[in-house]
Amino acid sequence: MNGMQARIRKTLVMAATLVAIGAVTGCHKKSSGVNPNALGPAPAAPSPAPTATITADPLAIDLGQSVVLNWRTQDATVVTIDGIGTVNSNGTQTVSPSNSTNFHLTAKGDGGTTEANVRVTVRVPVAPTAPAPTDTDMGSEAAFHQNVQDVFFDYDSYDLRPDATASTTKAATYLTAHPSIKVVIGGYCDDRGSAEYNLALGENRANAARTALVSAGISASRLRVISYGKEKQFCTEQDESCWQQNRRAQFSLDR
Amino acid sequence: MLSLKRTTLIRHAQLYCRGALLVLFACTAILRAQDTFKTETSSGVSNIRIAVADFKPASADPQVSSFKRTFDTTLYADLANAGIFDIVSKSLLPQSTPGAPAEMNVQQWAAAPTSAAMVAFGSFGVQANKIVCNGFLFDAKNLQYPQVLAKQYTEDASEDSARQIAHRFADEIIFRLSGGSQGIAETKIYYVKIGGADKEIWEMDYDGANQHPITHLGSVSLSPRISPDNTRLAFSSLGRDGFQIRMYSLLLGRTVNFPSVGGTNLSPAWSPNGKDIAYSSSRSGDPEIWISDANGSLARRVTSFRGPDVSPVFNPRTGSQIAWISGRTGLPQLYIMDTDGSAIQRMTDGGYATSPSWSPNGQFLAFAWDRKYGPGAPGGQDIYVMEIATKRWIQLTHDGGRCDFPSWSPDGRHIVYANSADGKDSHMKVWTMLADGTQKHALTGAGADMPNWSWK
What we know:
The complex is a heterodimer of chains A (about 260) and B (about 450).
Chain A: H1 2-25, H2 28-32, H3 36-39, E1 51-57, E2 60-62, E3 67-74, E4 78-81, E5 85-87, E6 91-95, E7 101-109, E8 112-123, H4 141-147, E9 151-152, H5 162-177, E10 183-188, H6 195-215, E11 223-229, H7 240-246, E12 248-253
Parallel strand pairs in A: 2-8, 10-11
Antiparallel strand pairs in A: 1-3, 3-6, 4-5, 4-7, 7-8, 9-12, 10-12
Chain B: H1 13-33, E1 48-52, E2 56-57, H2 64-81, E3 85-87, H3 106-110, E4 118-127, E5 130-139, E6 147-156, H4 159-177, E7 188-195, E8 198-205, E9 212-213, E10 221-226, E11 232-239, E12 242-249, E13 254-256, E14 265-270, E15 276-281, E16 288-293, E17 300-301, E18 309-314, E19 321-326, E20 333-338, E21 345-346, E22 352-358, E23 364-370, E24 382-387, E25 392-395, E26 402-408, E27 414-420, E28 429-434, E29 441-442, E30 448-453
Parallel strand pairs in B: 1-3, 1-4, 2-4
Antiparallel strand pairs in B: 4-5, 5-6, 7-8, 7-30, 8-9, 10-11, 11-12, 12-13, 14-15, 15-16, 16-17, 18-19, 19-20, 20-21, 22-23, 23-24, 24-25, 26-27, 27-28, 28-29
Helix pairs in contact in B: 2-4
């Protein structure tokens, strides 16, 4: 306790000392005084320039909402706001602008003209637009079929043959280079055998081609599989070359 | 059905009904002892000799003669098709045309050359735009109480009514004389009609009459399957996303909702209680057998094996087993399993087997089979029936071109199937035969495929 009181006392002493020094050195500017004439016009001079403020509450609205303008002027004889017209020197008004507006207030007085501004932002809703596609190039139909060739299968089989593996690799390269292309893979069978079984077999064939493309890095969402079984024959002759043409997974652009 | 004696037939009619089970049991016992099994129609018992008189015109209405001709032809054909009668040729019938019991002299019909055991006769007239038809069945060997059956029918006058009355009267006769087996004359056959690039679902009477379209979808619709209560038709139809199961209400006359799922969805089959549908679905990538309820909800997968699984059919007797076709080992083979996917049995030992149909008594599977499948192999795709308990089979069609899609009649005595003499799909016709392979005849012209016989 005693220690703390001693410290406070010491501080007080130091403060008193500083005040004393200040008093001795003095303040030279004060001694020069203030010339009242320099601060304003002489009493006989023309009236002062008007003052003006304008505020808006709130400063930002949605379309259809309203905003309150509030303005104050002094020493003005004519006060106008653009778009509203002549108004009282002080006042409020509720406005509902349809788009973002600068409310421009002009206060004219004997002492001159003063202006004030407030900007009201109107948020107009905009219908969302689809993002511009990054790449809409689907390539030509001809280029597609040249690079993405149908895959053919052996008799009653849905395993990819070596030649089919090579052509799916080529197809995958083309599809990787054209990321906007989507593909329908149709599964087909020759017209021998039973219709129901061939539809299931066609599904397996199309799936085999799809799996090959997916494992080559093509996104599964770009590939759609439809089995046509033997319902849509490509070739209707009854010979092996024709049957072979029908036993296929066919790629086409999914537009 | 089996051990009937013509003379005692009527007195024991009720006994036969009661004894039907016993006979079936005995039949099974016999089957085990035989080298080859036989279907019910080929039990070796001589058929009942029945005479079908042309009905007597009962009014002078000008419509009578054409309607009566339809009626007479239909009744004769129904009884001939039933497979349990030896029908007396019309040229051997007596000259008289009895229209009522009082005009009937049974001795005349029992005597040679008619030698009938049974006589069906009656009168047929049109009154006030209604067909009025009285039908009788007499036992020609029973002089004292010859009447077995007396029926009266009144329907709006039309060609179709005349045919339906004949079907109903035929079914009554068959029911009385077959030992309790229901006739099939009122049943329907649903099938795929090929028209250009489109395939629609059509319906016809069991005898091929009254062919008319059900769907008008302008697409490829396949595999019609009628519900056990004859109210709904499930089938598979090609849309933008491939084949999906569709459902058509015969009561509402339009397709009703059935949810679409991913992948190819094929070959629906009704459970015998009408509550579930089994079908092939590749929604998970590989075609597997799935079962959902009749509205397509609560779908669950039953098989799980890489390769095509398709064409399921429920055991109509128990509802607890499914026969289907699987390509899990290469060429498609016939399998059966329990509906939970357990107890899988392979039924065929090779070749190319498709399109199973399970007989109503649960004992047999009919299916299409190409036993030596492959380029240049002998033989072709024919209809076979296999006895499930023993896996023994008999071949029902021979050298008639490609046969497919057998479907049992509800009485288990007939099989309807599709046949194309040159193998081309567009030349497929719907044929019918007795379940032992006899009495084959075409029901439709070319361009009809995938028949499905109604459950009743």
